[in-house]
């Protein structure tokens, strides 16, 4: 009999961190937004210490600028951090699509097709957050059917800076992203590893063009020293 393994309970700091992390990534708190420990604590009905701890964690990841005796700000988007995340993600996903093309089963492919259908409905409904979640799920499933689900854990840990760009770009890239997902899945189903690698590289590389376009309309969102 396998004993149940209890998951560690989230602390107040964890909950505050998760909330602020999501708001920054989803651009509910855009770059330059001022944050106050006292105001966040009052809004959430908590003491200032867990808020301070959450601020520190987010600052260590490059999402907040904590300045002594001055307002804490949501950090600008770092192009350098985005490109570092892209490098890591591309290396891992190239390996997983190759493995998926070699060992995926018909049942695996049916799950991917079902996700593509859901993505199509999300695009039609202009449900950007829904599409984003389904996008992540497709990539996670590819890692899983390749036998390397732990790779998605690593990708998720590093892709947050990419997500700030991805979520801003979905107003003009969702249709293209869906077409690229279909190409990736099509190559995997055809067991054509080379085509799958080419498709995933093309899909992930488009973020550079998205950075340029978003910067044209929202120049204040970026670290100007990196543009």
Automatic annotation (TrEMBL):
SUPFAM superfamilies: GntR ligand-binding domain-like (SSF48008), Winged helix' DNA-binding domain (SSF46785). InterPro entries: GntR_C, TF_FadR/GntR_C, Tscrpt_reg_HTH_GntR, WH-like_DNA-bd_sf, WH_DNA-bd_sf. One of its GO terms (molecular function) is DNA binding. Keywords: DNA-binding, Transcription, Transcription regulation. Residues 10-77 form the HTH gntR-type domain. The keyword DNA-binding applies. This is Putative HTH-type transcriptional regulator YdfH. The gene is ydfH_8.
């Amino acid at each position: 009999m396998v004993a149940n393994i209890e998951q560690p309970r989230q602390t107040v700091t964890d909950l505050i961190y998760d909330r602020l992390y999501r708001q920054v990534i989803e651009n509910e708190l855009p770059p330059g937004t001022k944050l106050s420990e006292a105001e966040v604590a009052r809004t959430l009905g908590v003491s200032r210490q867990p808020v301070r701890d959450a601020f520190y964690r987010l600052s260590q990841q490059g999402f907040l600028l904590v300045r002594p005796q001055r307002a804490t700000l949501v950090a600008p988007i770092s192009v350098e951090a985005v490109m570092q995340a892209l490098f890591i993600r591309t290396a891992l996903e190239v390996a997983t699509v190759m493995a998926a093309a070699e060992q995926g089963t018909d049942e695996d492919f049916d799950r991917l097709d079902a996700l593509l259908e859901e993505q199509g409905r999300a695009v039609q409904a202009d449900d950007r957050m829904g599409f984003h979640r389904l996008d992540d799920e497709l990539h996670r499933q590819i890692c899983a059917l390749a036998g390397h689900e732990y790779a998605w854990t690593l990708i998720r840990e590093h892709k947050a800076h990419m997500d700030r760009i991805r979520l801003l770009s979905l107003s003009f890239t969702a249709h293209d992203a869906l077409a690229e997902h279909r190409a990736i899945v099509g190559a995997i189903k055809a067991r054509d590893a080379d085509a799958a690698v080419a498709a995933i590289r093309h899909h992930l590389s488009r973020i550079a063009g998205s950075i340029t376009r978003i910067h044209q309309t929202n120049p204040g969102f970026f670290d100007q020293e990196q543009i």
